[in-house]
Amino acid sequence: MTKVGVAVLGSGNIGTDLLMKLVRNSRLLEPIALVGVDSRSDGLVRARRAGVLALDGGLASLMGRPEFERIALLFDATSARAHVNHAAALAACGRRVIDLTPAAVGPYTVPVVNLEENLSAHNLNMVTCGGQATIPIVAAIRSITRIHYAEIVATIASRSAGPGTRANIDEFTQTTALALEKLGGASRAKAIILLNPAEPPLIMRDTVLVLSESADEARVASAIDAMVARVRTYVPGYRLKQPPQLERLGPSERMHIPGIGDFCGLKTSVFLQIEGAGDYLPAYAGNLDIMTSAALATAERVAEHLAS
């Protein structure tokens, strides 16, 4: 099939890593432009070396060029605030957008959970790095039993948290928690992000705690293993640090959940590690790699949908 023309908005860590993936790995997408606001940024320098149009005047500088006509799909790797304006401008000219910010203008999208039902959407939101890592696990458990509460803690290396990540921390926690409920199926959810300053930097880790109705523990563990294998098809560095821990809580061990009350049932703890592919970012920056990998997988499936 003919490749679909794409552009990346944002020449920071996420945008540059995504561009490198597009240049090296994509069979279906043709990177036409990388757009930033700093002509000296490493991303724009690398784009020029790769023969990709590099612009430092923001989205407006791309929309006024003839190359824009060849672009059917854009990735937004800027900020939640900037994406609100970008989304409106691109909707007006009929372009599809994959949003890597927590703006959540379009539907939350996690490739292994709900991509197929969002293929016709003009704006797809990739939630957050913590959401991409943990929502599949919560959804796997939800496929077996009802979930009362889900809590996730995303721990990332401080070095891998650039200005965009730091500026969007409030949006990260809010967007991730809402997506854990909407996509993961939890009645209530909470998300926490920790920036670890350790040296050398630690690889991204996520802890998932799920309180659910009692269920066959072997079925729950099997569903989690199967979901991990599915995520690994587009994020090879995604893996369990150890087997899931499942514990039945009877009346004497019941837990109190704010807003829900006393809980008896199945407590499931899952510990994940996400190692980056090293396309541009260091291996410890799994938090950024899982976003760009999920966005690339989403875009390639959208391209197949457009071709059909």
What does this structure look like?
The chain is an alpha/beta fold. It has helices at residues 13-25, 42-49, 58-63, 80-92, 111-114, 129-142, 163-167, 169-182, 217-231, 286-307; strands spanning 4-9, 29-35, 53-55, 73-76, 96-99, 123-125, 147-157, 186-196, 204-212, 238-240, 245-249, 255-257, 261-263, 265-274. The chain is built from ten helices and 14 strands. The longest helix is centred in the last third of the chain and has 22 residues, at 286-307. It has two domains: 4-127 and 289-307, 3-Layer(aba) Sandwich (Rossmann fold), CATH 3.40.50; 129-284, Dihydrodipicolinate Reductase, domain 2 (2-Layer Sandwich). The strands form three sheets. A six-stranded parallel β-sheet has the order 3-2-1-4-5-6, with helices on both faces. Strands 7, 8, 9, 10, 11 and 14 form a six-stranded mixed β-sheet that branches. The chain starts with a strand and ends with a helix. The mean pLDDT is 95. The protein is elongated and about 70 Å long.
| Distance, first to last CA | 10 Å
Name the CATH superfamily assignment of the largest domain: Dihydrodipicolinate Reductase, domain 2
Provide the gyration radius in Å. Answer: 20 Å
The total domain count is 2
β-strand number:
14
Count helical runs.
Answer: 10
Q: Tell me about the biggest sheet?
A: 6 strands, parallel
Write down the CATH topology of the largest domain: Dihydrodipicolinate Reductase, domain 2
Order of helices and strands: EHEHEHEHEHEHEHHEEHEEEEEH
